[in-house]
UniProtKB/TrEMBL annotation:
UniProt xrefs under Pfam families: RRM_1
One cellular-component annotation, GO: spliceosomal snRNP complex
Domain RRM: from-to ranges: 13-91, 100-178
Stored InterPro entries: Hud_Sxl_RNA (IPR002343), Nucleotide-bd_a/b_plait_sf (IPR012677), RBD_domain_sf (IPR035979), RRM_dom (IPR000504), SF3B4_RRM1 (IPR034158), SF3B4_spliceosome_assoc (IPR052084)
Cross-referenced PANTHER family: SPLICING FACTOR 3B SUBUNIT 4
UniProt protein name: Spliceosomal protein
Subcellular location: Nucleus
One BP annotation, GO: positive regulation of mRNA splicing, via spliceosome
Keywords: Nucleus, Repeat, RNA-binding
UniProt family annotation: Belongs to the SF3B4 family.
Amino acid sequence: MSSSRHLHQNKEATVYVGDLSDHVTEDILMELFIQCGPIVSLNIPRDRITNRANGYGFVEFSTAEDARYAATIMNGVRLFGSPIKTGSTTTNDEQLDVGAKLYIGNLAPDVTDLTLRQLFKPFGNLITCRVVLDPATGLSRGHGFISYDTFEAADAARAALHCQYVMNQPITVVYAFKQESKSGEKHGDKTERLVAPSALAAQVAKKVHSHISLLDDKGM
């Protein structure tokens, strides 16, 4: 499936599957996720030059309910010894978001989502981790974004990795600009840090309640 095909998927019924081992194939993912419901499409994107898997994939179900169920019960399942990360493609970027979002710049063309995750995971719990791709070519635009569930983790990662060499290029690690800001404000300011604990607690409670309701609907 091409990158353009992914753009036409029903995002409400699509599950993002990350932290995939190089040994995981589309057939293996199909065998695992077909247990959750009928699958419309499944794709593990590959580098157009090397043909290596990028370490993540997308599974589109026939209904949004099946997708939510799969994202809930498959998160953390081990494939080839590594736990996979699953989430909704429509809400994954918002889960447990306290504003600890970093911009990663000057990335080499071969840096993938998996590369970034392996690099930044030791500093804390990653909520999102992605290299920005050109929708027309599927190639990296040379930058990406990651977010943690605490500012302490983001601060530690920024201090340790800013200007460090990754694939022979020094990367830039700084707090990302706020999308809603019109004055160039960046994440990581004093206000965000003050409200982070209460915001995180509220989001965790909402997420747990949602999962419990989903399991009740499934009769589990």
